[in-house]
Protein 1
Amino acid sequence: MTATTAPLARYEDQRVTWTGCRQGPSDTVGETLDQAGAQCATLKVPLDYGHPAGRAISVAISRLKATESGHRLGAMLLNGGGPGGGSIDLPPDISSLMNGVGARYDLIGMDPRSSGRSTPVDCNWPISTWMRSPGTNRRDFDGVVALQRDLAGRCEKTNGDLLPYVSTRNTARDMDIVRAALGEPRLSYYGASYGTYLGAVYAQMFPGRVGRMVLDSAVDPGNYGAEDMLADAAPANETALHDWADWTAGHNSEYHLGATRDSVLTTVDGIIATAAEQPLKVGDYRVDDQSLPFVLMNGLDSDQDESSASLAASVQALHQAAEGQAAEPTADLKDTLDFLFTGMESAAGSSQVAVLCGDKSVDRDPQAYWRRIQQVKVGQPVLGPLLSNISPCAFWPTAPRERPTRIDNGVPALIVNSTGDTRTTYQNARALHAKLTGSRLVTLQGARIHAVFPRYANRCVNDTINDYFRTGVLPTTDLTCTSAAPVPLLSKTP
């Protein structure tokens, strides 16, 4: 054992005890894993890697074991995004997409530190998400500032001992403890959304320990964080809102929101203006102009008919309320409003913001956000203010303990992105591709979808991913996928 690994020996050499996953009669995640034949375990990792002999915390993992043991390709860790989202549930879902090659891997789900069944960060928020639009005037914005200060204060009060150690770099270190404890020389990886950033950080920190890596819907490490990452997505979201308005105009006989794109957008503007005067009564909820843009953004991550119809039905209910009619939320709208107005997923929201604030500092001056909001209104009047608004990170009690990771390596990886992605835009994928110099980029042309592999069922994309997982050989050039066949891109640089 080398001197560099000796301090972590008790973690790297720990015994992994696999058990059933269900933790009680209401544990549907555990029940689904058990039914799929998965097993679960809990590992110990250092709270502070700078002092590994100190306090330990827990990281929960699941495993869907390879059934083709004679052709086993190792372990593959899965991350579905976030940050702060648990991924222990993923192995059965990802296996179903792998066209048989999943049987050659031990598929490993992991709840990153601060999330899920791992040692959690839960700030006991009264709401599940910190995201709010600033409203129409300075008084409304000042109210959001007070909200964000309160949310940060709750995290300091309830989890102040954990917050300094919640970061992507520490999660990457946890991944490597998992790899070592499993006895694997290398770790293959599938990550979506934030999971692409986590994967890129792992590749930078542990380049010799990466197996086959797929990064789906990519984050640009250069603008990652609570401030720039969201603001940079504003133009794509405003464009998506216009595209959705086109779709909805074509279904005016069903939703009655307008027969042209402009008339649908005028309807949306009218709903927001009415909500600014008085919150809209939708069932038991009161929806104001600070929460309504989140409802819109939440429905714009896919151009599939089902998603467009879901958002149209939500806006229809909001429109009825704005017209003074009795309105009840659809099931999808209710889920979104629960997320906005109740603390039912406080743990998820708390974990997300803990990672973001633990990774990168942001501007702490509310006036700077106010100025930015006024500027972005010109080009992205509906969703720009939401995505440029202040976050709890402006009031976070601890500064990041490490600098953001600079990604610049030649580790092989397959990057996948749709051109219309509203969460991690296509330019993010191009930027990550340039930083991972050994990567190939698969472009899903003309589609608006986030997390392509599990959500779009594009044969060209899925076959390319699965061929790579099967052979370990990247495409010889970048590919563009359409509904027909892939074609080469002209260049692999942005």
Note: Residues 138-161+228-395 form one domain.
Protein 2
Amino acid sequence: MTLKGELAPLDHGGDLGAARKQFPGAPEPFLDLSTGINPFPYPLAPLPPEASTRLPDPASLAKLLAVAAEAYGAPSPSHVVAASGSQILVAQTAFLLARGRATILAPTYSEHARVAELAGHNVVEAADVTQLAESRIAIVVNPNNPDGRIVPKDALLALADRLRRRGGLLLVDEAFMEVGPYGVSIADQSARGNIVVLRSFGKFYGLPGVRLSFAIAPPEIAARLATAFGPWPVSGAALAIAATALADVAWREKTRGLLAEAAARLDTLIAKAGLELIGGTSLFRLVRTREAAQLFQRLGEAGILVRRFAEYPAWLRFGLPDRESAWQRLAAALPPKA
């Protein structure tokens, strides 16, 4: 196949503006499979007018923190801080520490390295969790994006113990933990003193535009983070939406099953196309193929956006279609198995 246009990987998933420039002749609407966001979002009820017409209420924030503590297994609401996205939590946590080495278990989000460097830390990457112990701050994404790697809980707690002895902190991003194995989260261990856990509301609940994430941390760290974010860290809409969604245990469990079924269906399409499945979660699948550039181009010209990786040119990540017509569109665009 002759490649057309600029094939430089997009910096992040979900950038349909860049995709339209890259594939100007693609049919609309674009089918965006480039993110790990749940395509079956939490059903939104009408918001009360005061969610937009008044400043966020401190009592509503306190309610949300209590609901989040229960949903995520935090020791208490005093361990929980809300913010408008995980990156600001990574950055502010990094700023709390004296400058030193920030070691990131790679490959993973490039944003974590960027914000740690902006906070003045010397950022290095490591391929094994045992290589993170000589750090001022060690960063692990668990389950990992894009390969779904799981670091066992006992390994993370052992790492936290080693870091504590030298004044280091362990930051674990659990953005995809809602679709991870039960019992892997270390949010319940945040009272140990040097563990900060991040949870992202938007990915599993399919509402990234709400811009809401949480840090679960020792109360003294949580208090310093809350002070840095000020009295209105998130919007009134975020408070109202998330307090309801996080308390809805039945929806959460039903959705875990729905996503697992969708991921299994995606695996079948991947196998039929002769692609090598190398990892993922039930929100996304990672494949490897020597024809990744050509397949990215083929899908883009069909109006289907998947995720490429500059550092790993043989990788592509597929999110989940949201309806039957989208499944059929993806099946038609994928090449037959050679």
Note: DSSP finds twelve helices and 13 strands in the chain.
Protein 3
Amino acid sequence: MELRHLRYFLAVAEARHFGRAAARLHIAQPPLSVQIRDLEEELGAPLFHRGPRGVTLTDAGVAFLPQAEAVLAAARQATAVARDAAAGRHGRLVLGFIPTLAYTLLPHLLPAYRQAHPRVAVSLREVPVAEKEDALLAGHVDVALYRPPPRHPEIEVAAIGAERMILALPPGHRLARRRQVPAAALADETLVMYTPSLGDRGLYGTVAAWLRAQGLQPRSAEIAGTIPTALGMVLSGAGLAIVPESSASLRLPGLVFRPFAEPQARVALAVCWRHGDPSALAASFVAHARSMQHPWAAVPLS
């Protein structure tokens, strides 16, 4: 039994006439009659009472009708699901992100993606900064939002924007009175820096490279593993911190943020995935992330 047998049966059952059913199916009547006879022989029971003016369903035909409709509906559903999956519109996508993008980039991208891909089940995975590469390479996440992106030959990266680095400081600090802070003013300040274990791949590398470009070797008293930790250290009086601009959206009492007078360092925002991954779901999210506008400079500083 093939699906075409069921389609032919339903056409005859609806038309109550072989000739009219054949016309709807765009086939000749004799092949249609042969197909219905083959189906009846396979089932071992006649499906139609045949008369000079048309046909009616037998008891077997009445019982078979809803089952045939259900099978064809399931086949259509299976076809739609397969096509949606091939186009990245159906399935399960595990999306990774570093903690500080949970309140900036993630809410900017995810609602619109879910609206455009309602049949995709998105699972979210927070990825510690030190595990950015491993999470992708081990398959724990399918696609990830990182800042800055990892550098690994097995990880593909698509830049989707960049954030300025700004200065976080207490409101009573002498530099808080300035609308912009000149880099030279940091020469006598103690800075909270980031974990240097990732070298130039992480925020440490971004900040350190910019400071070197300004001819600065500032004092560093404390090391922070994350941006929130750095901000907490500033609140505790450990020093000042250079942070991504979106950090200003946290609006922590006891902190203000100031841009620099010189061209600021920028840290790339990227969507990342495994090299050679054929997943249509990953490709669909990457395309969505690249199509979005990212108004990071719209965060007001205070």
Note: The two ends are 72 Å apart (CA to CA).
